[in-house]
Amino acid sequence: MKRPDGILVMAAVVVAVLLVGEFISYGPGTYVSESEVILDEDGYNIVLDTNYSTEYTVLVTETDANGEPRHLYIYRDFDYASFIEDSYLDYWIEKMAAEFEAYNFTDFTIIDAEGLRDMMAGSVYNGTASQTAVLFLTGILPDTVYGEDEDNLFQAWLSAGGFVYWSGAPIGMFVGHERTADTLFELVTDDPGDRFFGIPGSIRTQEANDMAQDHSSDRYIGEALNIYYDSCNYGVSSDVPDSLFIGYEKDGYNSIALSRYVDGTGQLCIFGGAFPPSDMQTAHSNILKVFFSGLCYDSVVTMLENSEKGSGEMTISLGIGPTDEAVVFVMYGSLLGTYGNTYYITGAESLRRYT
Amino acid sequence: MTFDLRRAISGVCSSYLFWVIVSGLAIRLVLSLFFTFPYDSGNWAKIAETVISGETLYERPDNYYAPIWGYLLAFLSKLYLSFGGTSLANQFDEFLFLDGFRVSYYNSVMIEPGFAILLKVVLFLFDLAVAFVIRAIVREMCGDVRKANLAFTLWFLCPLVIYSSSVYLIFDTLEVLFLAICLLAMIRDRPFVAGAFMLLAGMVKPFAFYLVPLVLVYFLLGRSDLRDRLNCFALTVGGFAAAFMVIFLPVLLNGEFSDAMTFLTGRVESAEDAVEGGIGHIIHLIFSFSSQVFIWLQPVIIGIILLLAAKYYRDGVRDLDKFVNYAVVSMIAVFLWPVSQQCYYLVLILLIAMMLPRWGVRTSTAAMLAIAVPAVVYLVLSHNFSLLMPLSVYTDLISPDWVLDHLLSFNLSIDIFGDYTYDTSRRIVQIVIMAVMVALVYHMHRRRCVREEA
Question: Does pLDDT of A279 surpass 90?
Fold first, then answer.
């Protein structure tokens, strides 16, 4: 019998391995990642279930702020001024789709300047602002909602409980116009720190490419969530009260801040630099993870477990009583994350799964 | 007949190849335990994590390559997690500011040692597989087992091959493996297999495609009948297309083909954008040995390659020695210009090993070392202290502060020309490599003249 050609056998093995990899990459559901919050007589537990071994994080927080599930709007309007190139913004929004999928979140809408005005006006009128959040990566607020006058729709929406996630430039410093206008954007003369937090100079407006290295006061939360973002050019001062600082700090300014709006119940999450800073390819995931985790400016961490699990089910007690209120965020993986879910436990033995 | 195990083991242990393999693997293992280039390997972990999350290969950032390497990562990460591995890589505070550093080769994501070792061991096996294919090719070329074993050694103990798989953790050896199989299939007159493996090679890294004209000419020269030639051409193209469909079908169905081609289109776009900077900017890029220059030179490079293929065709003889000769000159035409990733030269090392029957051991070894040593020096200068970053965060052998101090002092030191030592030293090595390549072509030309005179 003729001996098989060793080289061809080896080539066939390599190709077979590639085909298995192709099936894993594009075939149906090779990996199972699930979680479930259940209530028993002792309180709430979470069941983590994977068919692979993984690192996991379970974060339980309690808040008195309006920490309820929100519909996320992502601002994108190519007819209005922006500090981020249009194609670049689209690229990042496209990449966010993967994060939404991995973190089981579907409640989002891309919104333009006109839509933003309608949404903010409507939610202020209906009293539903606290169920909405807007992500801005353009560094500029459009003139449909913002302006020199403090009596603007954006601030009214914040007062009513809106939550803004922001990156790209100092918040509230620029108001953008339609690109057909003579002036694309204008500088707002008020100090943004004074306007949003009641403290002049509390939002940095430096143009230099400044990276913070010291841990902010609540860095352990950011670390547990694998959030690494160090640009603090437009960061928030550590002097701003009612804040959670989960990033890095330099000269008293923080790279990531969750702060209460000065007037009312609104909140601001500010990533204090360009989006993304330098060639950082995880900033979009970082900013979304803050949103998914349900963190608020006054969140108190009641449980934080960051460990490893083998394949199969694992149950963890969350330390939440049947009548307590809390937000439970679970994620698997060590970089961008392979799975995530958020559970809002609303007190009267009920559970809202945030999907 | 009874099988004598002791005798068999003793026979293996006393064989020349056994000790080449053992020493080659030992060097690789020792290096791989201490040194890892974290920049690219951090991206491999991100790609693998994307697959685990249920997304496809390109739905998250940082995957710029055709899917072949991604498929392999998907397979290996599955293996890694099945054996209890939990995380593939981690990000570290200490190195976070390097994301915006003036040298873009450093970042803060460090691959997990276990996952890194798994990937490296697989690359070692590819190195070994390439060596065996080279051995088979050289045996087909000259029938001399001793020379075949020496060609095996030339590849397997080449410093650049060792560095690429054990330290750089880059997958160019996979491209070379597919290319070597393609050449072996070519020699054995199997156009379909050759076409298929040429596609696979070029889709790992595109440099293999520069040899397509020569491979086609080789096939055509063995056939005088037009129908036979057309048949052979169709089989080669058929293999190429079949491999393309097998590898790219899910990518095409998912509408991700343009993402999978970023490694090509991204570089072309960057070269286009650079032209818009004006003549001053272009001159600056040329003198700073920027990678865009390589794209601008493509018409010249492709012209030279087509010219060489035409010359080979005009010679009219299907001579394997000549084929390899033309292939070496073709690849020198590709790599003569400064490129930023010297691991690309592995294709050249493959061809030099194949030249051994013609050049002899001393010349082939000298040629290999003349290219591989400066290439490794260039890579070490480029990667410098970042090679110790994973060791510093995962072990107590060395502190991250020490690594960072030395990395910064090397990268920010100024030389006598007032430029960064980092840039100047790399430029000098690039000039040395160019000079070596020119000398190699000159040497080949001289040998040819002497042979013709004789």
Answer: no
Read off the pLDDT of residues B429-454 as tens digits, 9 standing for 90 and up. Answer: 999 999 999 999 999 888 888 887 87
- Residue A174: phi and psi, rounded to 5, are -125, 140
CB contact under 8 A, B50 and A310: no
- Average pLDDT on A212-220 reads 95
- Region of A226 (left: φ > 0; alpha: ψ -120 to 50; beta: rest) is left
Cis peptide before A322 (omega within 30 of 0): no
Would you kindly state where each structural domain of chain A is located, as residue ranges? 1-30, 35-60+302-353, 68-293
The residue count for chain B: 454
3-state secondary structure of B70: helix
CB contact under 8 A, B74 and A10: no
Which among B54, B76, B129 has the least Cβ separation from residue A102? B54
Provide, rounded to the nearest whole percent, the portion of chain B with pLDDT above 90: 71
Q: How much is the pLDDT for A68?
A: 80
DSSP structure class, residue A3 = P
Report the alpha-carbon distance of residue B191 to residue B219 in Å, rounded. 7
Nearest-5° Cα angle at A34, A29 to A38: 155
Q: What is the DSSP letter of A211?
A: B
Domain boundaries defined on chain B: 5-260+298-336+341-453
Query: CA–CA separation, A229 vs A154, rounded Å?
Result: 26
Task: Supply angle C-alpha A72, A73, A78, rounded to 5.
Answer: 155
Residue B287: both structure tokens together: 């003198």
* pLDDT tens-digit readout, B165-203: 999 999 999 999 999 999 999 999 999 999 999 999 999
Q: Say yes or no to pLDDT of A89 above 70.
A: yes
d(CA B278, CA B281): 5
CA pair distance A284, B424, nearest whole angstrom: 36
Cβ A336–B85 below 8 Å, yes or no? no
Q: Output b/e per residue, A253-285; b: 16+ Cβ within 10 A.
A: bbbbbbbbbbebbbbbbbbbbbbbbbebbbbbb
User: Which of the four pLDDT bands, split at 50, 70 and 90, describes residue A354?
Assistant: very low
Measure B449 CA to nearest chain A CA, in Å. 37
| Selection from A312, A299, A330, A313 nearest residue A68 by Cα | A299
* Residue type at A232 in one-letter notation: C
Indicate the helix (H) or strand (E) that contains A44: strand A43-50
Rounded (10°) angle between helices B212-221 and B298-315: 10
- Locate the DSSP E strands across B201-342: none
User: Measured between CB atoms, which of B55, B93, B254 is closest to A98?
Assistant: B55
In chain A, which residues have their Cβ closer than 8 Å to the Cβ of B246? Answer: 19
Give the mean model confidence (pLDDT) for residues A312-337.
Answer: 93
| Banded pLDDT at A350 (limits 50, 70, 90) | low
**Beta-sheet strand order (sheet of A339-346):** A300-309, A54-62, A325-332, A339-346, A351-353
Which parts of A279-336 are beta strand (E)?
Answer: 300-309, 312-320, 325-332
Say what the pLDDT of residue B222 is: 83
Fold that domain A68-293 belongs to in CATH: Rossmann fold (3.40.50)
Lateral strand order in the sheet of A141-142: A141-142, A174-176, A185-187
Candidate from A21, A53, A230 with C-beta closest to B96: A230
Which pLDDT band holds residue B287 (cuts at 50, 70, 90)?
low
How many other CB atoms are there within 10 angstroms of residue B267's CB atom? 16
Q: pLDDT for B126-163, tens place per residue?
A: 999 999 999 999 999 999 999 999 999 999 999 999 99
Sheet (strand A71-75) strand order: A108-111, A71-75, A132-136, A163-167, A267-271, A256-260, A243-245
